Amino acid sequence: MIVSGKAVVVPGTNIDTDVLYPGIYLNIDDPDLMKPYLFEGLDPSLRDQLVSDTVLIVGANFGMGSSREHVPLAMKASGVRCVIGSSFARIFYRNCVNLALPAISCPEAAKAAKAGSEISIDAVAGKVTVDGREFVAAPVPPFMLEMLERGGLIPWAQHKLAQS
Question: What is the pTM of this model?
């Protein structure tokens, strides 16, 4: 699985899902209708930087706090194709995988990326390229790759059940 795009940098560490997608909007369940509220409690101007091939660059412990699936759903609907960070909160990371949004931990690549950097991720090989510089990340495990390629946990599980 290879993903590429332009970097949008979300500055800071320990960014909480409550500021990424505030609770007042949790009643919205259509990802397209979620887009206007992504980053609402952090920096709404970040939304203006998102395009159809965005690779979001984040700091350490990104997505801490509550288990809001709205964050990766709104990110995907807004054009985010992958999130690269120094580290992720466990539940945010798993929500990304479950919803077919690759989240790659690669602190060196996250540090090297600037707004607008050209990013390419080879999830199988564990390589992240930032403006032509290659960095090593842990390869995504095969079952998670399969889940990402099938469109997330539910389509993956449906496929597995159909094979039984």
Answer: 0.94
